[in-house]
Specification:
The complex is a heterodimer of chains A (399) and B (308).
Chain A: H1 2-6, H2 11-37, H3 43-49, H4 51-64, H5 72-96, H6 101-125, H7 136-139, H8 147-166, H9 168-176, H10 178-183, H11 188-206, H12 215-227, H13 233-257, H14 263-281, H15 287-311, H16 319-327, H17 339-359, H18 365-368, H19 383-393
Helix pairs in contact in A: 2-8, 2-9, 2-11, 2-12, 2-13, 3-5, 3-6, 3-11, 4-5, 4-6, 5-6, 5-11, 8-11, 12-13, 12-14, 13-14, 15-16, 15-17, 17-19
Chain B: H1 3-32, H2 38-57, H3 62-87, H4 91-112, H5 122-127, H6 147-150, H7 156-173, H8 175-183, H9 185-190, H10 195-217, H11 219-234, H12 240-268, H13 277-295
Helix pairs in contact in B: 1-7, 1-10, 1-11, 1-12, 2-3, 2-4, 2-10, 2-11, 3-4, 3-10, 7-10, 8-10, 10-11, 11-12, 11-13, 12-13
Classes of the chains: A mainly alpha (399), B mainly alpha (308).
């Protein structure tokens, strides 16, 4: 069953939904990167919650016009309109009043969501609303999805992805340095609007699959996870897209295999798994890498101090130092220095002495600033500079 | 406005007011500390907490579930902090990662476990069921002094009254340290105040209020009350004392007006069914905020323009 789902053999609808979810994930990951880099990740939370009243109103309007209240395109248009209104409210509260953006986000998401719930209860009491099933938009559900709905989602996902790729350059600039972007003649407001518009489009397309409470996860988590792997925007976008796409694809496929596996939560949990992997394993910013880096540094400090102690003929008691130096063949089991140990100790002592002279010379301030007790001076000074130093240590000895 | 009001409307209104004020009080400080969305995060992670508590104990009982929700809330706060520090991620994004994932985990657990026989679902956690907290034993205002009738009060009422008392006590006892560390953390530190501990205790109290309130009124009121009344109050005054008073008034007003509009509004308009009280209370609080944002005397930002 799972293999069939992953290889897209569970029927047309499941296939379309899976592909749609993948494209949605790619687009969400890429767009989310720009929101995240611009430190506005949670704006998407306000957008997604603000869709609910639109869904309800669209249903009411469509029923009043005599149509089918559940027509997906109509509901999506309604949700987009109210999400846009929510976005306007957030920016009005942030720009026109003294409230901070996080307060504005919280106010908009809770109030719009509250209005949405009121509308849902109104719809439940309407005769035609009994089986409306609008609650499925809260958590997403792909069960019983119609061919047309699946098509809307697949096309929508593809469109959003295309737009994101098209707008990646201006969005990068605005996310990082809006002042510079404005200075170089870019219309920052319009780009920000496009960014929010894309986030809104993703929310709207994702409503049916992921649900409005969890769609925000698809915008935030892949981007945050991708950020661990690289320092370059272009690559973050690609990785975030890949993570989002993988979550969408795997999640939709997995949830098609069993009825008790709701699509939205599965997609989000897969994304979270990718995030945890990144947090632990990413080179550079990951925890494992940081731990290894720390251990390497610790070893260097201990060995260096041990060598200096050897050179001065002092005994070493510190167990970690002893272990490290034994393992490197610098001392024997009884603590006496080996030949390599003696040679390296002498080098370390000479290096330390050179540093001392260097640091006492005000003319060498720049080089002296790089003293950390670890870096060998040979890596900083040229051979003839070293020679001058050595002459200062023991005049006449070095030729 | 007699017997029917006491048995059907008095307790839900009181519960709504207690919950609203208990959330709005810590909300004032969270708002000023730019942690307003903590309430949002906490109210999302309450779901996995109660589902876990149900799976562990096998019963739908108030105390284990509140314990579970409280544990989940604290866990989420710790996780957010850990992820923020370890990954060097901005707090908003760390929050987004944690609460969505935990909520997703809660929904999945709920779907996987057999909870169809018990009253436990996502919608209940979101909307609460304020309307059902009626006082059947009451026959009129005189019931308020009859012990036999008082025993039939919905248990949410004393629980929320206790929570409100706790929040009030916390705010009153720690007023000066809270105020100092909120406005000038560096100064508070040099005075020797444990600012980290104060911040944590504020979040803990907020979590307690959120957990106690969500059981009765649902997450949506919790989020709305954490943010909207304090935000509206912030636009009315520059003084923290006055702001706290304003926020309590706004919270009370939202709870009463919202409940009345939800229960009676549709009837006045000629519809038959009441609408969701939780949603209506959130809506009213939003209206109050909107009015404050348009006409509040201190709505403009003093000094530097908005950043970002």
């Amino acid at each position: 069953m799972l293999i069939e789902a992953l290889t897209l053999q569970l029927g047309y609808n499941a296939t379309l939904v899976t592909i749609g979810a993948m494209m949605l994930g790619v687009a969400a990951g890429a767009t989310g990167t720009f929101l995240f880099l611009g430190k506005r990740a949670l704006v998407s939370d306000a957008i997604s919650h603000a869709t609910l009243p639109g869904i309800g109103l669209a249903f009411v309007v469509m029923v009043m016009l005599g149509g089918d209240g559940r027509a997906l395109p109509g509901l999506l248009i309604g949700s987009a309109l109210s999400a846009a209104l929510g976005l306007i409210c957030v920016s009005a509260l942030t720009n026109r009043t003294r409230l901070t953006e996080d307060a504005a986000i919280g106010a908009v998401l809770s109030v719009f969501f509250g209005v949405g719930i009121v509308l849902l209860t109104v719809i439940q009491s309407m005769t035609s609303g009994r089986q409306a099933g609008l609650e499925s938009f809260l958590l997403g559900s792909t069960a019983g999805m119609l061919w047309d709905d699946a098509l809307v989602i697949a096309v929508g996902g593809a469109l959003v992805l295309g737009l994101t790729l098209l707008l990646r350059r201006p969005m990068t600039m605005v996310a990082f340095d809006p002042d510079y972007a404005a200075g170089s003649g870019m219309n920052v407001r319009r780009v920000e609007l496009a960014m929010m518009g894309l986030a809104m489009a993703i929310t709207v397309v994702g409503l049916k699959i992921v649900g409005l409470i969890l769609i925000v996860a698809l915008l935030i988590i892949p981007a945050v996870a991708a950020r661990f792997w690289t320092e370059r925007v272009g690559i973050v976008v690609v990785i975030a897209g890949a993570f989002g796409g993988a979550s969408g694809y795997l999640g939709a496929a997995l949830s098609a295999t069993a009825p008790a596996l709701p699509t939205g939560p599965i997609i989000v949990l897969i994304a979270f798994g990718l995030f945890m992997l990144s947090l632990l394993l990413a080179p550079g910013r990951g925890l494992l890498a940081a731990f290894l880096r720390h251990r390497r540094f610790q070893a260097r400090v201990h060995v260096r101090q041990g060598l200096l102690a050897l050179a001065q003929g002092q005994p070493i008691y510190e167990p970690l130092t002893l272990r490290l130096m034994r393992r490197r063949g610098l001392i024997r089991a009884d603590g006496v220095a080996t030949q390599t140990g003696q040679a390296q100790a002498a080098r370390a002592a000479l290096d330390e002495r050179r540093w001392q002279v260097l640091r006492s010379d005000p003319a060498q301030e720049d080089a002296a600033a790089r003293y950390d007790g670890l870096t060998p001076l040979e890596t900083i000074l040229t051979p003839d500079q070293l020679e001058t130093l050595d002459r200062a240590i023991k005049p006449g000895l070095v030729t | 406005m007699g017997a029917e009001f006491v048995s059907l409307s008095l307790t839900p209104i009181l519960i709504g007011v207690f919950a609203a004020v208990a959330c709005a009080l810590p909300g004032n400080f969270l708002l000023l500390r730019r942690q307003a969305l903590i309430g949002d995060a906490i109210s999302h992670v309450v779901l996995p907490g109660i589902v876990m508590a149900f799976l562990l104990t096998g019963v739908v009982a108030a105390w284990p579930m509140m314990m579970g929700a409280g544990v989940a809330a604290l866990l989420s706060v710790v996780l957010i902090e850990v992820i923020r520090r370890l990954g060097r991620i901005e707090p908003g994004a760390a929050m987004g990662v944690v609460f969505t994932s935990m909520f997703a985990g809660g929904v999945l657990l709920l779907e996987q476990s057999d909870t169809s026989s018990v009253h436990l679902d996502v919608e209940h956690a979101l909307f609460g069921n304020l309307e059902s907290l009626i006082w059947l034993d009451a026959v009129g205002w005189s019931s308020l002094v009859e012990t036999s009738a008082l025993r039939g009060l919905p248990p949410e009422l004393p629980r929320l009254a206790l929570t409100l008392a706790l929040v009030l006590g916390f705010t009153w006892l720690l007023w000066r340290p809270l105020k100092l560390s909120t406005f000038d953390e560096g100064f508070a530190q040099t005075m020797g105040l444990p600012t980290g501990l104060i911040g944590l205790s504020l979040v803990v109290v907020a979590a307690i209020a959120a957990v106690a309130a969500f059981d009765a009124v649902g997450s949506i009121i919790v989020i709305a009350m954490f943010i909207c009344p304090p935000a509206a109050a912030r636009l009315m005054t520059d003084s923290l004392e006055v702001q706290v008073w304003y926020s309590c008034v706004f919270a009370t007003l939202s709870a009463i007006l919202g409940y009345v509009l939800a229960g009676y509004g549709p009837l006045w308009l000629g519809f038959e069914n009441a609408v969701s009280a939780a949603g209506m209370i959130a809506t009213v609080s939003g209206m109050i905020l909107a009015i404050a944002a348009m006409f509040g005397p201190c709505r403009a930002r003093a000094g530097a323009p908005a950043e970002g």
